[in-house]
Amino acid sequence: MKFNPNIESLIDLAIQEDYISGDATSESIIDSKATGIGTIVSDEIGILAGFDIAAKVFLKIDPSLIISQFISDGSKLINGSKIASISGNLSSILIAERTALNFLRKLSGVATHTSKFVELISHTNAKIVDTRKTTPGYRNLEKYAVRMGGGHNHRQNLSDGILIKDNHIKILESDGLNISDVIRKAKDNSSHTIKTEIEVENLDDLISALNAGVDIIMLDNMPVEMMKRAVELCDGKVITEASGGVNLSSVKAIAETGVNLISVGAITHSSPNLDLSLDIE
User: Fold this and answer.
1) Structural domain boundaries in the chain
2) Catalytic residue annotation
3) Which stretch of DSSP H or E encloses residue 263?
4) What is the pLDDT at residue 95?
5) Regarding the domain delimited by 5-114+272-280, which CATH topology (the fold level of the hierarchy) does it fall under?
6) What is the mean pLDDT of the chain?
7) Which residues, including other chains, have CB under 8 Å from residue 151's CB and lie 6 or more apart?
8) Strand, helix or coil at 208?
9) How is 219-261 classified by DSSP, letter by letter?
10) Are 242 and 219 in contact (CB under 8 A)?
11) Residue 20 to residue 22: CA distance in whole angstroms
């Protein structure tokens, strides 16, 4: 994993909010010179993601700790999988434990939830992509976790591409512009290197978008039969993306319509944390 200043700041903030003025428990009952080994263990089936972040937390607390990783990010975990060991000062290990596991549990949860969607559509050519519905400050990390779970990244931020949604269209409709006009305006006022995507909810708007030369069409909250017809009308001329309330029960049928991409906000905003723990040997 690549670290940038934003990730480093997030780690520092997480440590500061937990270890603000010492560890009252360890300081009162643990010999400050005692050493030992702690093992990070998986307590359920899942996909590992974010180990480098967890390791960074331990080493920020105590650079003398020795970390041995047994399982790499993107790997499958079973109940009882030993992920890594941390050797050294026991007080340091205990101080870093919760913050390190918070990162690891959260990101492994995203990877695990993503992998469930990916597995359900593996018989198709569709790809699962994330959205910008991420935890503030965690976008780089959560999008990394999506990749570890077999998914793909949509826009990193607002500058990554043009995505014309219903609110944009409503604003411009008041100026007398229709969907075709909005697409042309976007293309006229942007670089030729930026792709233009538009959200549509019916076939009439889809045809207008196709005729206007859009690059990607988001099929928003369409019934499966309508979506299938939409893909047929696009006939490979544009990239098609299904979106809107996609869940584990609906994703298979959506993928079988022939869409290229399926965006799932739930893989970042609603993934349950993976159950991981640290055991002192």
Assistant:
1) 5-114+272-280, 119-269
2) 98, 133, 165, 199, 220
3) strand 261-263
4) 98
5) Aldehyde Oxidoreductase; domain 3 (3.90.1170)
6) 97
7) 114, 117, 118, 127, 128, 129, 130, 264, 267
8) helix
9) EES--HHHHHHHHHHHTTSSEEEEESS--TTTHHHHHTTT-SE
10) yes
11) 6
- Rounded CA gap, 163 and 166, in Å? 10
> Residue 68 forms beta bridges with which residues?
85
Give dist(CA 231, CA 238) in Å, integer: 9
Which among 25, 156, 19, 179 has a CA at the least distance from the CA of 99? Answer: 19
* Location of structure tokens 């503030």: 136
CA atoms within 13 A on the CB side of 199: 14
Which regions of the chain are under pLDDT 70?
A: none
Integer CA distances (angstroms), 192 to 39, 101, 117, 195, 196, in order: 52, 44, 33, 8, 10
Q: Residue 210 and residue 261: Cα distance in Å, rounded?
A: 17
Which residues, 6+ apart, have CB-to-CB distance to 68 below 8 Å?
A: 84, 85, 87
Question: Which residue has tokens 């965690």?
Answer: 138
Are the C-beta atoms of residues 124 and 148 closer than 8 Å to each other? Answer: no
Nearest to 85, CA basis, from 245, 278, 235: 278
- The residue assigned the tokens 């269209």 is 169
Q: Which CATH architecture has domain 119-269?
A: Alpha-Beta Barrel (3.20)
pLDDT, residue 175, reads: 92
Q: Whole-prediction pTM value?
A: 0.95
